[in-house]
UniProtKB/TrEMBL annotation:
Keywords of this entry: Cell membrane, Membrane, Transmembrane, Transmembrane helix, Transport
Family in the record: Belongs to the binding-protein-dependent transport system permease family.
Protein name per its UniProtKB record: ABC transporter permease
Stretches that traverse the bilayer: 61-86, 98-118, 130-153, 174-199, 234-253
Subcellular compartments: Cell membrane
Taxonomic source organism: Kocuria turfanensis
This protein's GO CC annotations: plasma membrane
Domain ABC transmembrane type-1: 62-253
Membrane topology classification: Multi-pass membrane protein
GO BP term, pick one: transmembrane transport
Amino acid sequence: MIGQILLAAVAVVWLVPLLWAVYTSLRPYAETARKGYVSLPERLTFDNYVTAWTQGDMLQYFVNSLLIAVPAVLAVLFLSSTAAFVLARFSFWFNLPLLMFFTAANLLPQQVIITPLYRLFLELGLYNTQLGIIVINVAFQMGFCVFVLSNFMRALPEELTEAARMDGAGVWRQYWQIVLPLTRPALAALATLQFAWIYNDFFWALVLVRDGDKMPVTSALNNLQGNFFTDNNLVAAGAVLVALPTVLIYLLLQKHFVAGLTMGANK
């Protein structure tokens, strides 16, 4: 009982900033300027959402984010699953060093390599392109995904692939038709996490993209701020709009996401 009360209290504390942002976004700025943000509303309106959508040019930035996040997530999951399949199903002397490399690379701070990476992108023609943002996100997210998927695939019965080999199935068919369908819960959980991480990323776009019309939606919030004045109600409405796609992805993949997080918990 005490544990449930503590969990409920933590959930409420976690939700307060989100609910407060929604509450602020629904109030006119003139009212909060007169009465303060900690006050009861006279009226609630969606005007801030309309203004944020038009003033921040949200549609263009949403498209930019989808053009970056969707291909990056698909590439991360495909490349990670193939690497994890080899690490989990075949015994080579470099299996453990390669897995340690993927794990260690995932812990590397991004800021450490930004200067050589910036020069490399200039030489390769990837600077100021959305393809460059996709490539760098794939490179940095693969380590975590390979680590998770390889552990998940090791838990699958060896007899499945052995039976497939006895029936003449090649390596690709073992991966594509036997192992990959069984890793769907882990892939769904990783897809949700990866989409949220890549969609919310602002660092790589800030450093490796120069033109504003190629920036992701996280940079659109900056368009809602003025040099000498910031309407916090408007910014709150923009932040809620930016957060909606990640919430939608979670709701769509919630069943598989929870299954992926609890995999192996009852063994």
